[in-house]
Amino acid sequence: MRVTAVDLETVDAKAIRQKLHLTQDEMAAFLGTSASGYKKWEQGARQPSGAARTLLRVMEKEPEAVLRALSN
């Protein structure tokens, strides 16, 4: 059986968003979540999980690639 490591570090959604020069509403739309839910991530009240967490990690490492892929 193969065991995969799980990334338990917190994600700094605000720092990633500011690096991309996006508003909270724009970032929420890119991530497919509500603006209120996204704001809770920035405030530290909640942490993203699943696909949103993974996408934030990719945005942190390759922001331009993600924005190109998600743009119309």
Task: Describe this structure as you would to a colleague.
Pfam families: MqsA_antitoxin (PF15731). GO terms for molecular function: DNA binding. It is built from 5 helices and no strands. It is mostly helical. The chain has a single domain, classed as lambda repressor-like DNA-binding domains (434 Repressor (Amino-terminal Domain)). The longest helix has 12 residues. The chain is globular and about 40 Å long. The N and C termini lie far apart (41 Å). The model has no long low-confidence stretch (mean pLDDT 88).
Topology:
Layout: H1 13-19, H2 24-31, H3 35-43, H4 50-61, H5 63-70
In short:
This protein is mainly alpha-helical and 72 residues long.
